[in-house]
Amino acid sequence: MVHPEPVCRRCRRPSSGSTLCSFHAQYGKNRTAVRRGRFEPTGDRYCRPEAVKVVDRDERIVYRDSVRNADFFLRGRKTVTPGESSPQTIRYGTVAISLHWLIAVLIVVAFYLGWIMTDIPGFTPVKLRYFSWHKWIGVTVFAFSLYRLSWRVVNPPPSLPETVSAWQRRGANVVHGLLHVLMLAIPLTGYFYSSASGIQVVYLGIVPLPVIVGPNEALKVFLRICHVSLNYVLLTLVVLHVSAAIKHHLVDHDGLLMRMLPFVK
């Protein structure tokens, strides 16, 4: 009776009497190291021992056509296919993407509440409830914006593609800088406006925030004008920001929008 030659159950190549070839037996031992970036798969997909090499942690490059899921564990790093000289789509990290969309949703809700609550006459319970929610969201946006700014300093965002012109780079830097400033300035002006009105902010109805300024009618009017004006400036910048992202996606096809979208690998 002729017994079939043993083959690897993963790559179907001849193995030395076991269910795995020498490469896959070694890969199973070093799977954690591969996922953490200490090893980088290159060349053939799974089957050559020389397809694994040690690389510097600061130079992690994950080939899309390599060990499955490796790009997921190194998300935010450079992603290229074999033969490419430079990456075209470099995604943001998971933390940066999560903070971006969480803050965006909170700003939309806060703007909507601020828009409708000012049209409610008198001081009805519904209006007071909207005011409280508006203030709580503002405090949350301020805290998340501080954290996002510190995260951005420690983890710089990926650079723009070479197809983006110099004036577009300068414009993007200016818009992003103004957005970060406004995400901090608008909650502060609203907080000071509430204090100048003689109303203490109690975050989530549990944590009373300190009153920085006392009741002051002139300061109250000034802070209200600043708060409303800055919100309209923020709305204008958001429209520019979204329009530019859509233009890069539909016209330039450079992948700028895809690198910030969640649930996209």
Written overview of the protein:
The strands form 3 sheets. The chain has a two-stranded antiparallel ribbon with strand order 1-2. It has a two-stranded parallel ribbon with strand order 3-4. A two-stranded antiparallel sheet has the order 5-6. It has 7 helices and 6 strands, in the order H-H-E-E-E-H-E-H-H-H-E-E-H. Helix 3 links the parallel strand 3 and strand 4. It has a domain of 159 residues: Fumarate Reductase Cytochrome B subunit, CATH 1.20.950. Helix 4 runs antiparallel to helix 5, helix 5 packs across helix 6 and helix 6 packs antiparallel against helix 7. 52% of the residues lie in helices and 6% in strands. The longest helix has 36 residues. By secondary structure, it is mainly alpha-helical.
Helix content: 40-55%
H/E series: HHEEEHEHHHEEH
CA radius of gyration: 27 Å
Number of strands: 6
Average pLDDT over all residues: 76
Count of runs of 4 or more consecutive helical residues: 7
| Major sheet details | 2 strands, antiparallel
Q: Describe the global form.
A: elongated
> N-to-C terminal Cα separation, in Å?
50 Å
CATH topology of the domain at 94-252: Fumarate Reductase Cytochrome B subunit
Q: What are the segments in which pLDDT stays under 50 over at least 5 consecutive residues?
A: 36-88
The CATH architecture term of the domain at 94-252 is: Up-down Bundle
CATH class category label of the domain at 94-252: Mainly Alpha
Q: If strands are numbered along the chain, what order do they take across the biggest sheet?
A: 1-2
Which structural class best describes the helix and strand composition?
Answer: mainly alpha
Percent of sequence in beta strands: 5-15%
Keywords: Cell membrane, Electron transport, Heme, Iron, Membrane, Metal-binding, Transmembrane, Transmembrane helix, Transport
Cofactor: heme b
GO cellular component, one term: plasma membrane
Protein name: Cytochrome b
